[in-house]
Amino acid sequence: MENTEEHAYLFKPMKTEILGWVLGVVWLVGVVGAAIVQPVPYADAYRLVLELAIFGGRAVSIGDGVANGFGQGYLFFQCGLQDIAMTLILYPWVLRAFHGAEGLGVLGRFLRALHKSTEKYRRILEPFGVVGVWLFVFFPFWSTGVLNGVVLGYLLGLRIGVNFITCFSSHLVSTVALLLFYERLSVWLESVGSGAMQFIPWVVLGTLLLGFGVQTLWEKRRAKNDAKDNDVDD
Question: What is the pTM of this model?
Answer without folding.
Answer: 0.76
